Amino acid sequence: QVQLVESGGGLVQPGGSLRLSCVVSGFTLDDYGIGWFRQAPGKKREGISCIADGGLHKYYIDSVKGRFTISRDNANSTVYLQMNSLEPEDTAVYYCAADLDGDNWCMAAIEGIRLDETDYWGRGTQVTVSS
Hints:
The chain contains 1 helix and 11 strands.
């Protein structure tokens, strides 16, 4: 049974950091593209970062470049999202997702395309950036 379980969210002050984790089970991490997405109240879900091809390809949206870093730990079947210099605009529910189409899916997902075709989703973790 495939599962993606996010953790690491919480309340943080502006300028602070959080590290999100996505633990996957039921499939081999290297075979899938793994992405991080977020959805703020009243807004569409957006792709923010994605990793594919065994970590060879990494993608970020412009608003998080230089602040967020995606990484993977195959031994622990976990994909991380290190988030630094957090801003109130980063407040959202953060989801991880996986798709067998790997790099092609990552490139589309970062643009907000093909999200409804994604193979698997986690349930999300809340990130709130507030003073």
